[in-house]
Amino acid sequence: MLIIGMETDMRRIALLVLIAIACKASRADITGTVTIGKTSSAMLSVGYIGLSQNKETLRNSCGMTVGANSSATSVWCSTYKPRNSELHLKNGKYSFKHVSIPPGQYFVYAKLGETLMLGKAITIEKSNEERQIDIDLLKIKTGNLALAAAAKGQWSVRLAPANAQGKPLIKGLDLNQELRMEGKVVQGKAGFRYLPAGKYIVQLLKITQSGGDAKSHWEAYDVAGTFSVDVVPGKTLTYKLN
User: Fold this and answer.
1) Which of 73, 135, 203, 215 is deepest in the core (most CB within 10 A)?
2) Is the previous residue joined to 103 through a cis bond, with omega within 30 degrees of 0?
3) What does the pLDDT look like over 4-59, one tens digit per residue?
């Protein structure tokens, strides 16, 4: 009986190993580097958001304070294990890794501070794929957006990068909601500074309800309009959102 029990346990272990190998073979890893300029203190975040082939929204990110006043060198995020993410500083260079990502379409990004975000839309087509994405936040050319909205009540705007035609980078995914690059409309005006040049989608949001406090604030809203805008290096372009 002991021998039979041991054989059964060995079969179970072997089956678990095969399952683990199969799961790994159907997923991809994304690695890369991030180049930033000198800064006294800012939050550097790396992450991805996208849709798997099964149309499941998948995301992960991690970040740490960087700059002359920071001593941080590594951070890991295992919230969505086994889809872990990590960011490291070694020899003055930042490197990141996102693992166990199933095939699908994803926006892979790096973000420094509130609005300096740069990324790339990719498609993972096959199993056991490895992708390398290097993001240089130092050499990018930036511009500003000035947005005007003649509306009464509480309003805000959300921003997300778009493709060359001004359309969503990933069809079926609301990057404006996912990335949450937001600004309040104050006296009919809102704006974003130091945006990488390119096309963006702006959503004008009507705040219908809000609550909570400074630590835990929530808002309900209706999307009142969606607009395609351009960011031009060294310039501030003004758009009316009505």
Assistant:
1) 135
2) no
3) 555 555 555 444 444 444 444 468 999 999 999 888 789 999 999 999 999 999 99
Q: Is 10 helix (H, G, I), strand (E, B) or coil?
A: helix
Distance (Å, rounded) from C-alpha 163 to C-alpha 81? Answer: 30
Outline where DSSP puts E strands in 14-92: 28-35, 42-52, 57-66, 74-77, 85-90
Pairing of strands 155-161, 181-184: antiparallel
* Alpha-carbon gap, residue 33 to 97, rounded angstroms: 9
Q: Residue 89 and residue 117: Cα distance in Å, rounded?
A: 19
Question: Sign of the CA dihedral 165, 170, 176, 180?
Answer: negative
DSSP H helical ranges for the chain: 2-25, 175-179
Distance (Å, whole) CA 93 – CA 87: 10
3-state secondary structure (DSSP) of residue 7 = helix
pTM value is: 0.83
